[in-house]
Design brief:
323 residues, mainly alpha, 16 helices, RNA_pol_sigma_r3/r4-like
Length: 323
């Protein structure tokens, strides 16, 4: 489904071509999931498999959703045009979800030779900034931009010279982008100030990232607060990645055994196996750590992640005499 840039209403607030297309795809006659899926497929060029990863569902479910969405557009005669300025707020939630999802898939690819699509991540940040500038009083775009800036601020320290991942505990924090962090923290504070009800998922994710950004070192991180924030996030937006990240935070806050116990309550996937391997190794259970990390290699990962995990396997095998 190829889309040309639609005509822009006179004096439209949306000047950027790509952002216009996103607002155009996010028609409120479609459900939120349908809007986001359509935009990611037609505008971001993601395959159903890639969309499934970022939206936490199956490739088959995404394919069916796209088919149903296109059929509904044709059947209902949903117009393909840039919305009038007064109609933009009704599309804001979907636009924020598209921007956030496009950053997520760029930040950690589902496969390939690179851990991060740097250009894709920068484009998502650019779009997040444009959405915030378009609606400067709305708390959601502030929170999305804050979240992306906080995550992006660590990019220079996130990989080694070979492009392989560097764990958060080993990152050189002097390489983090302090200007991006300062801007993001101010955006998050303002977003929360403008929110009367319970914080939304973007605000909570940004608050978690802010805890890492504020910590002078990994050891100085307030892990108990991060666990509390994950509890809040899971109460409003349950997801497997958030539950896994919470288990890691519990391991740091309450001990490795507590973290492993939390893991046992979750459904295994490749990242679950990788986390379990790291926690088992902390307990000196190297044979089990090797087995868990080998299991993490069975599913699709990037080449840099595979190299990192294979090094961990070799390290633990040498310590335990496992081959």
């Amino acid at each position: 489904m190829e889309l040309a840039v639609p005509d822009m209403p006179p004096d439209s607030m949306v000047a950027d071509d790509r952002l216009r297309l996103i607002f155009t795809c996010c028609h409120p006659a479609l459900g939120l999931e349908a809007q986001v899926t359509l935009a990611l497929r037609t505008l971001c060029g993601l395959s159903p498999a890639q969309i499934a990863v970022v939206l936490l569902t199956s490739e088959a479910a995404i394919a069916k959703r796209l088919t149903r969405t296109r059929a509904k557009i044709a059947r209902a005669g949903i117009p393909y045009r840039v919305p009038a300025d007064e109609d933009l707020p009704a599309r804001l939630a979907a636009v924020c979800a598209v921007v956030h999802s496009s950053y997520t898939i760029a930040h950690t690819a589902a496969g390939g030779d690179r851990l991060t699509d740097v250009d894709g991540a920068r484009e998502a940040v650019r779009l997040a900034r444009l959405v915030h500038e378009l609606m400067p009083d709305e708390p959601a775009p502030m929170a999305v931009l804050a979240l992306l800036l906080l995550t992006e601020s660590r990019r220079a320290a996130r990989c080694d010279d070979a492009g392989d991942p560097v764990p958060l505990s080993e990152q050189d924090r002097s390489r983090w982008d302090s200007d991006a962090i300062t801007e993001a923290l101010a955006l998050l504070d303002e977003s929360l100030r403008r929110t009367a009800a319970v914080a939304d998922p973007y605000q909570l994710q940004a608050a978690i990232a802010a805890e890492h950004a504020r910590a002078a070192s990994y050891a100085a991180t307030d892990w108990a607060e991060i666990v509390r924030l994950y509890d809040m996030l899971l109460s409003v937006h349950p997801s497997a990645p958030a539950a896994l990240a919470r288990a890691v935070a519990v391991a740091e806050s309450d001990g490795t055994a507590a973290g492993l116990a939390e893991l046992e309550e979750l459904e295994p996937d490749q990242r679950w196996h990788a986390v379990r391997g790291e926690l088992l190794a902390r307990q000196g259970r190297f044979a089990e750590a090797v087995a868990a990390t080998r299991a993490s290699l069975a599913d699709s990962t990037t080449a840099p992640e595979r190299r990192y995990r294979q090094r961990r396997i070799a390290q633990w095998a040498a310590q335990q005499g496992v081959t």
